[in-house]
Design brief:
Blueprint: E1 40-42, H1 48-61, E2 64-68, H2 74-89, H3 92-98, E3 107-111, E4 126-131, H4 135-138, H5 149-175, H6 180-183, E5 191-197, E6 209-212, E7 218-223, E8 230-234, E9 237-240, E10 248-252, H7 254-259, E11 269-271, E12 279-286, E13 293-294, E14 312-313, H8 314-323, H9 327-334
Parallel strand pairs: 1-2
Antiparallel strand pairs: 2-10, 3-4, 4-5, 5-12, 6-11, 7-10, 7-12, 8-9, 8-11, 13-14
The structure holds 2-oxoglutaric acid (AKG) and fe (ii) ion.
C-alpha cells in the first residue's frame, strides 16, 4: 500500500510531490468574509412547503446546505466521529490488516485519491471507504478494529440512510419528480468515506482534496465541531463551510445535476488542510447501483427545456470519473451532443 500520510508526516517538511501548481494552490488561507453563507435548513419545522423551498433554493444557488434538527441523535454523531478518529489513529500496520488496498474490494484504504498511481501530485488525505447496503452483507467487510466500529457505524449508516431518503423525498417533491424515481435503484449503493487530514507542514501549498464535484446523488457529511476545512466555490470565490455542532453538511452531487436536467447544481468544493490539528470527516455518498441508468427525469424535459445529458449506466459514468481529473472532459462525456 502507498504510505498513508498519517504514518510519515510527523516532523517532515512538505514533500515536493505534494506541492501543487500555483493555479490550484490555496495560497492565503483566510478566505475573505463573504456575504455568501451556506444556508442552514431546519428539518424539524412543520411547514414542509417552506422546508422544500429552502432546500431547492440552496441546491440551485450553492449546491450545498446544512441541516439541523435532522433526527439523528447527537450522541450517535459523537460516537461515530470518535470511532472514525480512532480508526485513523491506529498504527499503519493495524489499519493495513483491517482493510484491503484493492480499490475493487467492498472495503479499502487509500491515500491522496483513488488515482494515486497516475496523478501528477498528491493530496494530504487518507481515506477508508466501504459500502453500506445491504448491511447484513457489507458489515463483514468493515474493519473489526476499533472493536466498536461495526456496532457504531452500522447504527450511524442506518440513521443517515433514512435521513438521505427524507432529503431526497423533499427534493423530488420540490422538483415535481415522482419519489419512486429516487428509490428505484438510485439509492442502492450508499458508501461511507472516512477522510482523515493529518496536520500539514504547509497548508498554503497543498490541499486535502482538490476542487471537485461528487459523483453521486447527494453526500451527507459529518464534520468536527470546531475545524474548518471544507470550502465551496461560488461566484469565483471560496466560501468556508463553518461547522455547526451536530449538523450535517449536505451537497448535491453530479448525478442529481443530471437527473434534475441541470436545475440543481453539483457544487464544486475542495478541502484545505491546517497545521495545528488533524481533521476527520465522514462522507455518506448516496449513489445508484452500477446498472442503474442515469438520465434527466422525463417530467423535466420538454421542447423548451431539452435534455442536457444523455442516458448512461451509472457504472460508465463512475468509471469515467475515476480516470479523469479534468471536469470538462467528464461534462463532454455525459452531455447530449446537441446540449
Ligand atoms: O472532508 C471533507 O470536508 C469533504 C470531503 C469530500 O469532499 C468528499 O468526500 O467528497
Ligand atoms: Fe466531495
Amino acid at each position: 500500500m502507498e504510505q498513508l500520510v498519517a504514518s510519515w508526516y510527523n516532523g517532515r517538511s512538505l514533500p515536493e510531490t505534494y506541492v501543487l501548481p500555483l493555479e490550484i494552490r490555496p495560497g492565503k488561507l483566510n478566505v475573505p468574509v463573504s456575504t455568501n453563507i451556506i444556508p442552514v435548513v431546519d428539518l424539524g419545522g412543520h411547514d414542509e412547503t417552506a422546508i422544500i423551498q429552502q432546500i431547492l433554493e440552496a441546491s440551485q444557488e450553492f449546491g450545498f446546505f446544512q441541516v439541523i434538527n435532522h433526527g439523528v441523535p447527537s450522541n450517535l454523531l459523537d460516537e461515530a466521529m470518535n470511532v472514525c478518529k480512532e480508526f485513523h489513529a491506529m498504527s499503519a500496520k493495524d489499519k493495513a490488516v483491517q482493510c484491503s488496498n484493492d480499490l475493487n474490494k467492498n472495503c479499502f484504504l487509500y491515500t491522496s485519491s483513488q488515482r494515486y498511481a497516475t496523478e501528477k501530485y498528491h493530496f494530504w488525505r487518507d481515506s477508508l471507504t466501504h459500502f453500506c447496503h445491504p448491511l447484513e452483507k457489507q458489515i463483514q467487510f468493515w474493519p473489526e478494529k476499533p472493536t466498536r466500529y461495526r456496532n457504531v457505524v452500522s447504527k450511524y449508516t442506518t440513521e443517515v440512510s433514512k435521513l438521505g431518503s427524507t432529503i431526497l423525498g423533499l427534493i423530488s417533491k420540490g422538483l415535481g419528480v415522482s419519489p419512486e424515481h429516487f428509490s428505484n435503484g438510485l439509492t442502492e449503493n450508499p458508501k461511507m468515506i472516512v477522510n482523515h487530514y493529518p496536520p500539514c507542514p504547509d497548508p498554503t501549498l497543498t490541499l486535502g482534496v482538490p476542487k471537485h464535484r461528487d459523483p453521486v446523488l447527494i453526500n451527507i457529511l459529518l464534520q468536527e465541531d470546531d475545524l474548518c476545512g471544507l470550502q465551496v466555490f461560488k461566484d469565483e470565490e471560496w466560501i468556508d463551510v463553518e461547522p455547526i455542532p451536530h449538523a450535517f453538511v449536505v451537497n448535491i452531487g453530479y448525478v442529481l445535476q443530471i437527473i434534475s436536467n441541470g436545475k440543481l447544481k453539483g457544487a464544486e468544493h475542495r478541502v484545505v488542510t491546517n497545521s495545528n490539528s488533524a481533521r476527520t470527516t465522514a462522507s455518506f455518498f448516496v449513489s445508484p447501483s452500477d446498472e442503474t441508468l442515469i438520465e434527466p427525469a422525463k417530467v423535466l424535459v420538454n421542447t423548451s427545456s431539452p435534455a442536457l445529458y444523455r442516458s448512461l449506466p451509472y457504472k460508465d459514468f463512475h468509471s469515467k470519473f475515476l480516470v479523469t481529473s479534468d471536469w470538462k472532459e467528464l461534462e463532454k462525456f455525459v452531455r447530449t451532443t446537441s446540449a
